[in-house]
Design a protein that fits this description.
With 490 residues, the chain is α+β, with helices and mostly antiparallel strands. Helices cover 22% and strands 25% of the residues. It is built from 10 helices and 25 strands.
């Protein structure tokens, strides 16, 4: 992709768009990326008050077809590691896609900054992306542009990195042809393109597997698998050169990793693994990493950061610890029955006791009429589903432990929050995992938005995803269409 420095260099209808401008009800706040026909802004949905990534496109009919294909492709696949799209359309001649805003970097930036990654961390990125790709292939879509730049890493205090597969602009149905291969006409990224895609033959999910294997080589080695001076030389190497051996640059890796990559980088699709998941599983076995559990019920030990909220006059403390099998917190509802217990391990070791929180902290769940009146629906259809219940019984949850999750219970996704807002009545704007309360060693609690689609407010102020906000007695957390949670101490 030809990279421009500003939307003005894109020409056409994007000229003049910048921070402070409005597009289809979205206020542009900051330019975060720009390419030959598109610009991506951090923007604010003024109707719902949430932060989004707003992709703006302009161009000829082929660009418009790609835009429509991208919007349909993402909408067709519901997967926790595919970046969700909120809205797509056209306003004043500008095409736009509103997506979840991911505060972290993409893997291209991560590798550029850190170099080769540890085996466990690389596998922790590859397996979820493989699962997402298999989900896309299951509905007949091939991504066709799998590369580190299209893998976004969401980060937040006290929780593991979460990778999202993005940019389905080149996605097409399985067995669609690869397209022209003349210089300047190749669609995709030469550094990660499968031989059949380069030569214009029909492609299926195994082309994405080949690209994912190239990404794996990059994550483990810190370099490209077929590094050449000229793009055409890169394409030739994909077609004819044998796969490089990652152990030549990472002798600490088992030789079995070379064998796994050799198969996934086979020149003929039939020589590769049957699915991206099968490749990722073989890779984990070769690396000596625990099997991947897509439910998140078990995660391999990893170095994670435990962030202690800063007190007055204190610096924030970040301590690297090994993930263990400690318990999360509990929220005891109405003085009797504990909320559903957590299913995934807490990111702190058994050897560290949970922080002692003096006094009793309580989360009081109720409805807020004033907040409901301030929320505007995106569409008439959404407005019909959002109504303030006639009566919302107040519920009180006593907080204890180290972490309390807030959201809606989902059996299919194995999400069982300690504060379950499934109902009755159910707030349609509450996400499955909407917010997380984190206990600190200084006898306090903080709240984090783990990247929920609808966001949260604390005392009327938006909370950026991944940022821990210390709470005080009486603070009010708004989430969904009318739900308010008041934090009370004592």
């Amino acid at each position: 992709m030809v990279v421009a420095d500003s939307p003005a260099q894109l020409g056409g209808l994007l000229t003049g768009l910048g921070p402070g401008c409005r597009v289809a009800g979205y206020l542009l706040e900051r330019l975060v990326g720009v390419g030959g026909t598109a610009a991506v802004f951090r923007a604010r949905d003024e109707r719902l008050g949430r932060v989004v990534a707003l992709k703006l496109l302009t161009g000829d009919e082929s660009v418009r077809r790609r835009f429509a294909r991208e919007a349909r492709a993402i909408a067709a696949v519901d997967h926790p590691h595919i970046i969700p799209v909120y809205e797509a359309g056209e306003a004043d001649g500008v095409l736009f896609i509103a997506m979840r805003f991911v505060a972290g970097d993409d893997l291209r930036v991560v590798v550029g900054r850190e170099g080769s990654l540890r085996s466990q961390r690389a596998a922790a990125f590859i397996s979820p992306v493989a699962s997402a790709l298999d989900a896309a292939h299951g509905v007949g879509l091939v991504h066709r542009d799998v590369k580190p730049a299209n893998m976004l890493v969401d980060v937040g205090p006290g929780r593991p990195e979460h990778v999202y597969l993005s940019d389905f602009g080149l996605a097409r149905g399985i067995s669609s042809v690869g397209g022209p291969t003349m210089a300047g006409q190749f669609l995709g990224t030469p550094d990660y393109a499968a031989p059949e895609q380069i030569s214009g033959r029909s492609v299926d999910g195994r082309a994405d597997q080949y690209a994912l294997a190239c990404v794996t080589y990059t994550l483990l080695s810190g370099s490209l698998p077929f590094k050449r001076e000229e793009p055409m030389a890169v394409l030739y190497a994909h077609l004819y050169a044998p796969p490089p051996r990652v152990t030549s640059v990472r002798p600490d890796l088992p030789a079995a990793v070379d064998q796994v990559l050799d198969r996934a980088l086979g020149k003929a699709p039939e020589d590769r693994y049957g699915s991206c998941g099968a490749f990722a599983d073989a890779l984990r076995e070769a690396l000596g990493v625990e099997p991947y559990d897509s439910s998140g019920a078990a995660r391999p030990p990893a170095q994670v950061g435990v962030v202690a909220p800063a007190g007055p006059g204190c610096q924030r403390i970040v301590t690297a610890v090994s993930a263990g099998a400690g318990a999360r917190g509990t929220a005891v509802f109405d003085g009797g029955t504990p909320a559903p217990t957590a299913i995934s391990p807490l990111t702190r070791p058994d050897s560290l006791p949970p922080p002692t929180v003096a006094g009793t902290w309580t989360a009081v769940v109720a409805a807020d009429r004033a907040y409901y009146d301030s929320v505007r629906a995106v569409s008439d259809q959404d407005a019909a589903s959002i109504s303030l219940p006639a009566h919302v019984p107040e519920r009180r949850f006593r907080l204890s432990g180290t972490e309390v999750r807030i959201g809606r219970r989902s059996v299919s996704r194995r999400i069982e929050p300690e504060i379950d807002l499934t109902g009755p009545p159910t707030d349609p704007g509450v996400s499955r995992l909407h917010a997380v309360l984190i206990a600190g060693p200084d006898q306090s609690w903080s709240v984090v938005d783990p990247g929920s689609p609808n966001g949260i407010l604390v005392n009327g102020k938006d909370v950026p995803p991944g940022q821990a906000v210390p709470l005080q007695d009486g603070d009010r957390i708004h989430l969904g269409a009318w739900t308010v949670i008041t934090i009370a101490r004592g």
